[in-house]
């Protein structure tokens, strides 16, 4: 950006949990440095913004806009269109925005079935539901509805990555993601010997809690469904992936390694290539628990 004024940043959340915005606030001493360089013109986590009346969905102009959350309702769609109109650069922030994330789990059911499950009304429009903005037929990622200039996955993205993206876009640069899988950032011991079936994570993995994680055997090799091979890395920053630090398998929350990847198919391929019987997975669709948008999670036959 060539002019001298501070770049204006705008944030909006759709079907989101606020974790992505909290991740930015969690960026430690980088945060005050950043705040000195930018002007934040819209940030619902810090300043409530009621929409409605003549001002409906009128958002301030900004240089860089960040949208977190999946696109689940007509209201989300209107907000998103407003963001696209008012922001020169638009970033989808977090796995809900880039791949549907947790909200897209509902894509296995119709909107009416979801309302019925939540509000217990057979018409699909209970009293509370009638007050809600109309649901879309399914939950979409942001790039399915508008042009997106940069996608930053993560649930939430690592604070350092959010700051890196902001600072790079402020100078009209191109941010860089690690481009590695979780496995490529994981220091556990791999022997090449795989457990031949998938073990449910009902018991702890085998490790010595007095030993560093570097001494633990790979959880996938132990037979646990660790999605590290098919999940984008970066959750631990320069350190060990977060779940592996806690000695539990990766659940896939950064979405696929390649933006257009399919974590379900990719994981089944990984298992098959190691001779593991994937039929032991109780619910294969659950491998898309963070990336069900882009038409990947579809209606189950019962609710079609
Ligand atoms: S990506 Fe994760 S942290 Fe961000 S809004 Fe979605 S659920 Fe919350
Ligand atoms: S499968 Fe899991 S435990 Fe094994 S190397 Fe990959 S991330 Fe680490
Ligand atoms: S290890 Fe996997 S599930 Fe855990 S935080 Fe990292 S990307 Fe997400």
Summarize the model shown:
By secondary structure, the protein is of the alpha/beta class.
Which key terms come to mind for this protein?
304 residues; alpha/beta; Rossmann fold; 2 domains; five-stranded parallel β-sheet; 7 strands; 24% helix; binds iron/sulfur cluster
Residues in helix, %: 10-25%
In terms of quaternary structure, the protein is single chain
- Please tell me how large the radius of gyration is: 21 Å
**Backbone shape:** globular
State the CATH architecture of the largest domain.
3-Layer(aba) Sandwich
Helix and strand element order: EHHEEEHEHHHEEHHH
Low-confidence stretches: none
CATH superfamily of the largest domain: NADH:ubiquinone oxidoreductase-like, 20kDa subunit
Return the CATH class of the largest domain.
Alpha Beta
How many helices in DSSP terms?
9
Largest sheet: 5 strands, parallel
- The structure class reads alpha/beta
Distance between the termini: 49 Å
Q: Give average pLDDT, whole number.
A: 91
Strand order of the largest sheet: 2-1-3-5-7
Structure overview:
The chain has 304 residues and is of the alpha/beta class. The protein contains nine helices and seven strands, in the order βααβββαβαααββααα. The protein has helices at residues 19-25, 30-35, 74-86, 95-99, 111-119, 127-131, 159-170, 242-245, 263-273; strands at residues 8-13, 39-42, 62-68, 71-73, 87-93, 135-140, 150-152. Strands 2-1-3-5-7 form a five-stranded parallel beta sheet, sandwiched between helices. Strands 4-6 form a two-stranded antiparallel sheet.
